[in-house]
Write a structure and sequence with these properties.
Helix content is 22%, strand content 35%. By secondary structure, the protein is α+β, with helices and mostly antiparallel strands.
Length: 219
């Protein structure tokens, strides 16, 4: 298995025992979601924005309006960092200090470029939609040229990365374990509820199989 080389930029210092630099494990965290947090500097101020994404090999793709100040800013700087995080549980300890959460998170560092080709932009938008709901793109109408012209797609190449995972129980002070205080884990998961049709034609239609499949797999 390959690993990202550790450096001052990506090395995990706090909770280093929970760190991993394994490329496959980091990709598994990335592929388990479709929302990331992108950091950038705008007029000297640090800002973080949530964005939909998709991954292909060592590339992350995000998109937005051609007037999107975050995308324009990171393209100008030619680099950024991206974080993906999944919350898996609340860790309730016997003291407030030792409360924590179980999670999987990955932080990526890399360079960027603008995707120019309409064909490539369309393919990437297909990947992003299908990362949200598998097989959904083929049920949609084709993109209009004017829509593509207003859409900025950015390719982010992962140059280095690290991940942290906490998947254990409570870690209290030794003298606290005999206290009559409840402690434990509240598992957390994101679930899908039954699909709700939009007004108009969808109300008269059967829900597509791929959407019901998604619901069944994630309810």
């Amino acid at each position: 298995m390959s690993e990202y080389e550790k450096s001052k930029l990506n090395r995990v210092k706090r909770g280093a025992n929970r760190a991993t630099y394994d490329v496959e494990k980091i990709n598994t965290i990335l592929d388990a979601g479709f929302l990331c947090y992108v950091g950038y500097i705008y007029e000297g101020k640090p800002i973080t924005i949530p964005m939909a994404y998709t991954r292909r090999e060592d590339k992350i793709y995000i998109h937005g309006s051609t007037a999107n100040r975050m995308l324009l800013s990171i393209l100008e700087s030619e680099e950024t960092s991206i974080t993906v995080m999944h919350l898996d549980g609340l860790v309730l300890a016997r003291s407030g200090l030792h409360h924590s959460v179980n999670y999987r998170s990955a932080t990526l560092f890399g360079s960027l470029k603008k995707v120019e080709s309409d064909d490539e932009k369309t393919e990437i938008l297909k990947w992003i939609v299908n990362q949200m709901v598998p097989n959904h793109w083929d049920s949609l109408r084709p993109m209009y040229k004017k829509e593509l012209d207003r859409t900025l797609v950015v390719e982010f190449t992962i140059e280095t990365a690290s991940a942290k995972v906490r998947d254990v129980g409570v870690a209290d002070e030794p003298e606290d374990y005999e206290l009559p205080i409840w402690a434990g884990i509240v598992p957390i998961k994101q679930v899908a509820e039954y699909p709700i049709a939009d007004k108009g034609e969808p109300e008269k239609m059967e829900i597509p199989k791929h959407i019901l499949d998604y619901y069944e797999q994630n309810k």
